[in-house]
Structure formats: C-alpha cells, structure tokens
Design brief:
Blueprint: E1 2-5, E2 8-11, E3 18-29, E4 35-43, E5 49-65, E6 68-79, E7 82-91, E8 96-102
C-alpha cells in the first residue's frame, strides 16, 4: 500500500516490507538461554525516542543467511495506539537488534 503526500510516495505502516529500524532492546533469558524480548526503543523520523512494550512473542526461530546467524522473533505490540505484529531480528555476531518488518 502506498500513499502520495505532496508528490512523494510513502509506504503505509500496514504494508509488509522490510524496514530495518535499529532498536535498543531489553530482553530476558531463561535457564536454557532462550531469549524473550520485553521492551525496546527506537528513534523516529521526527527525532523522538519511542518506547514499545512487547505484549506477546508469537514465535521464535533461528536463521542463517550467507553465514550470518540471526534470531527471528514474531511479536505483538501496541505502536502509537495501534496493535501491530512485527518481525524483530537479533544478529548474533554483531549483537544488534532491529525491527525487520511490520507484518500487520
């Protein structure tokens, strides 16, 4: 879904597409080393720091892309008052978190 604003094309938040937003994550780990995202924050385009509380972790998986190990989490959270489902990824080598894409 696209939206035209003043002659430019902007993607709507509901359209599933990679966004790759770097985030600062607070997570918990159980005794087996399984990671559970709790909350994260990121900087918006308006230079505002927004904090999001993860309501539920729907699924977790580990992916290998060309030798790069990433942990993938599908989570639900309320972003700007709207319930969202998002894919969050953790790069094991660089130890960096990011919102990979919004699914709904």
């Amino acid at each position: 879904m696209e939206e035209k604003v003043h002659g430019t094309v902007k993607k709507r938040m509901g359209a599933p597409s990679p966004v790759n937003i770097p985030i600062q994550m607070i997570c918990g780990m159980d005794t087996t080393g399984s990671i559970t995202p709790i909350r994260f924050r990121f900087q918006t385009n308006e230079d505002i720091i927004e904090t999001i509380h993860v309501e539920k972790t729907v699924s977790r998986d580990e992916k290998n892309y060309v030798g790069i190990r990433e942990k993938q989490f599908i989570c639900t959270a309320s972003v700007s008052g709207i319930q969202r489902i998002m894919e969050i990824r953790y790069n094991v080598e660089s130890q960096k978190w990011r919102i990979f894409q919004f699914l709904a």
